[in-house]
Specification:
Largest sheet: 7 strands, antiparallel
Strand content: 15-25%
Subunit structure: Interacts with SNAP25.
Mean pLDDT: 79
Number of strands: 35
Main location: other
Oligomer: single chain
Catalytic activity: S-ubiquitinyl-[E2 ubiquitin-conjugating enzyme]-L-cysteine + [acceptor protein]-L-lysine = [E2 ubiquitin-conjugating enzyme]-L-cysteine + N(6)-ubiquitinyl-[acceptor protein]-L-lysine
Low-confidence stretches: 1-16, 62-141, 728-736
Distance between the termini: 49 Å
CATH class of the largest domain: Mainly Beta
Subcellular location: Cell projection, Dendrite; Cytoplasm, Cytoskeleton; Cytoplasmic vesicle, Secretory vesicle, Synaptic vesicle
Shape: extended
Pathway: Protein modification; protein ubiquitination
CATH topology of the largest domain: Jelly Rolls
Length: 736
């Protein structure tokens, strides 16, 4: 999974070899530049060779007391920089690292400065040549480290005062040492067949059961894939060598108690500890967990982090391919553009020839600028991808380690590095900084007297806008759409045209024209599927349509009473779901949603009913009168009801008196069916009278009228009553 960013065009072995080469930078010491030898882990999580650590030691002034040095310990707060410049110990003119024995006993000895800024004291013992670094004596034979010494990390430049243990207080990175050893083994000479009698050929396979390396002829002759040998497992020679040389897991010992094995993990200090550390040391009160469990947990975390980084590496590789293709496209477009420009200029008279040279220079400059930007981005992305792949390979090798304590010593740092590297491939990193198109064209129509003012002008229509899907949404019967121009488009845009169909597969129609890039369309049909698209325009014309976006409005309507359109005497509460009135006269309030298609049902409960008033319930047009009972004018269709009976009313015409009234707690239902054009009323789940009104068409709002003796609460999003079967005249009918 983690090797997806590798070159898929390469066969497996060259691809693995290339990945191993990229990992080599992770295996080299930042001081000596060679492969790590006896690496130790600094508190900042960086690694350094043990011998190199001795080389970059510096001695603090004698005036500093041992107590303060010990108090600093091996974990200086936030790794504060030591103000070494104030000690007057260094010679800024010197450069380069000293070799083994790089410390002094007096604070007045001048020091040297390495290329990466780490200052070191010159050696007090004979200094071997740089290439003899790997021949340094064993650390046990080295002179003792002076008291009050400090070391500065060559990578992050954080300084640390050593305690009485000196460099022995830093844990050894056995995982890194094992990875380096395997890497060096993989670059060794090729393995030979063990069965060839004369001039052994290069081995091509190893049998794990027989523990023998074979060339192809010997394998076919001595190890045929049949019989008992058919179950043997053959592996590549390099893998067989590693498995043959694999040593059993080493038992790690505590740096504080050298005779104790590391068996637990301190969660607070993030380090393996022994039982004696828990009983006597500073970890006694800390939370600890089993070493094996934390080993598996951190391996899983590192593997999970590598998944994300591997995705970024894959995207980076694809992005590099895109950039390389852009180079070719830029060159092709540049050549084509130059040819058109030359053809136009050659067609003009001698006055045009003087201007032609200036125009060609402008095109060439733009051409070279585009190439430079893309090539620079290719170079930058290639380097970053190489570093990412190297880190991935190194982490994979670390995961193969079977040393829990060694792994846990570096796992946190590796996880942070993987997350940090992944974040570097964030948004915008894999976006081209330059377009391959030349958005310029030559206007060859000016008259001869304007030849000297001839210049490039913009003659292209805008590109198709991009709908921003994450910002497009529907709510009830409203739709919000958002769009933008393509990120690499440089063509000016004067405005946009938004189009929607009728929600029933009909033709598109314009719903917005203007410069804004976001628009909300209200008054759509419920439970309908709308298609939308947008295009841009400028002085040159109208561009192409964007991709068509399909949106579904709500199947049911959730609405409230509308304060904006209500009479001023209406009193709202309960988030506009409950209304009453401050006047003795009837006042009208409408719902916040309008209906023009489908089947809709809502209810209202009577919370207060005093002195036998006659509130009215029904539907109305948007311009209904608000200061009279609902149904008095020709813009409302209603049922008004008292405590004994009800009537239907429209345009002040009273019809269908029906026994049965309302009291406190009664429920009034309104059923509006556009498929049949019907309006039906219910009281306490029973139909009140016959069908109230027929042949209803157009747009209607839920509405009621009431006075100060009545208070009602609205309920929406309800199923239609069981007794009613919707008509089939409208295939998009819905229930609200």
């Amino acid at each position: 999974m983690f090797l997806r960013a590798a070159d898929e065009a390469l066969p497996p072995q060259p691809r693995a070899a290339a990945a191993m080469e990229e990992m080599e930078e992770e295996l080299k010491c930042p001081v000596c530049g060679s492969f790590y030898r006896e690496p130790i882990i600094l508190p900042c999580s960086h690694n350094i060779c043990l011998a190199c650590a001795r080389n970059i030691l510096v001695q603090t002034p004698e005036a500093e007391s041992p107590q303060s040095s010990r108090a600093s310990g091996s974990a200086v707060s936030d790794y504060d920089y030591l103000d070494l410049d104030k000690m007057s110990l260094y010679s800024e003119s010197d450069s380069g690292y000293g070799s083994y024995g790089g410390f002094v006993s007096a604070p007045t000895t001048p020091c040297q400065k390495s290329p990466n800024g780490v200052r070191v004291f010159p050696p007090t013992v004979p200094q071997p040549a740089p290439q003899q670094h790997l021949l340094l004596p064993h650390p046990a034979s080295l002179p003792p480290i002076p008291r009050n010494s400090c070391i500065t990390c060559p990578q992050c430049h954080r300084s640390l005062i050593l305690d009485d243990r000196g460099l022995r207080g830093f844990p050894k990175n056995r995982v890194l040492e094992g990875v380096v050893d395997r890497y060096q083994q993989s670059k060794a000479a090729a393995l030979k067949c063990q069965l060839c009698e004369k001039s052994p050929k290069e081995a091509t396979a190893m049998c794990e059961q027989c523990d023998v390396f074979y060339c192809d002829p010997c394998r076919l002759r001595c190890h045929p894939p049949r019989g008992p040998l058919a179950k043997h497992r053959l592996v590549p020679p390099a893998q067989g060598r590693i498995s043959r040389r694999a040593s059993p897991r080493k038992i790690s010992t505590c740096t504080e108690h050298e005779l104790e094995n590391l068996s637990m993990y301190c969660v607070q200090c993030k380090m393996p500890v022994c039982y004696q550390c828990l009983e006597e040391g500073k970890h006694g009160t800390h939370e600890v967990k089993a070493l094996g469990a934390m080993w598996k947990l951190h391996k899983g975390q590192l593997s999970q982090a590598l998944n994300g980084l591997s995705d970024r590496a894959t995207e980076a590789k694809e992005f590099l391919v895109q950039l390389r293709n852009m180079v070719q496209h830029i060159q092709e477009n540049g050549v084509e553009f130059e040819a058109c420009l030359v053809a136009q200029c050659d067609a003009l008279i001698d006055a045009l020839n003087r201007r032609k040279a200036q125009l060609l220079a402008q095109v060439t400059k733009e051409h070279e600028h585009k190439l430079k930007v893309v090539r620079d981005q290719i170079s930058h992305c290639t380097v970053k991808l190489r570093q990412t792949t190297g880190l991935m390979e190194y982490c994979l090798e670390v995961i193969k380690e079977n040393d829990p304590s060694g792994f846990l010593q570096i796992s946190d740092a590796l996880i942070r590095r993987v997350h940090m590297t992944e974040s570097q491939w964030g948004k915008g990193t894999l976006t081209p900084r330059m377009t391959s198109d030349f958005d310029l064209t030559l206007d060859s129509g000016p008259l001869l007297q304007t030849i000297h003012q001839l210049d490039f002008v913009q003659m292209k229509v805008p590109a198709a806008p991009m709908l921003q899907l994450e910002e497009c949404c529907t709510q009830n019967n409203s739709a919000t759409l958002s769009w933008k121009q393509p990120p690499l488009s440089t063509i000016a845009v004067e405005g946009y045209i938004l189009e929607l169909d009728d929600g029933n597969g009909g033709p598109f129609r314009e719903v917005y024209v203007g410069p804004e890039t976001i628009c909300t369309v209200d008054g759509l049909h419920f439970n309908s599927t709308y298609k939308s698209r947008v295009k841009a325009f400028n002085a040159s014309g109208v561009g192409q349509y964007s991709k068509t976006l399909i949106m579904q409005t709500s199947e049911v309507a959730w609405f409230t009473f509308d304060p904006a359109s209500a009479h001023p005497d209406i009193v709202f509460s309960n988030d506009n779901l409950t209304v009453s009135c401050s006047s003795y006269d009837d006042r009208v309030v409408m719902g916040s949603a309008a209906f023009s298609r489908g089947v809709h049902y809502w209810e209202m409960t009577v919370d207060r009913y005093d002195n036998h008033p006659d509130p009215a319930f029904g539907v109305a047009r948007g311009d209904v009168l608000k200061d009279v009972m609902l149904g008095k004018d020709d813009k409302a269709w209603a049922m008004y009801v008292d405590n004994n009976r009800s009537w239907f009313m429209h345009n002040n015409s009273h019809t269908n008196r029906t026994d049965g009234g309302i009291t406190k707690g009664s429920t009034i239902g309104v059923l509006l069916d556009f498929s049949r054009g019907l309006l039906i009323f219910l009281i306490n789940d029973e139909q009140q009278g016959p069908v109230a009104f027929e042949s209803l068409e157009g747009t209607y709002y839920p509405a009621i009228s009431l006075n100060r003796n009545v208070q009602v609460t609205l309920h929406t999003g309800l199923p239609i009553p069981d007794f009613y079967t919707p008509g089939e005249a409208d295939p998009t009918s819905s229930v609200c």
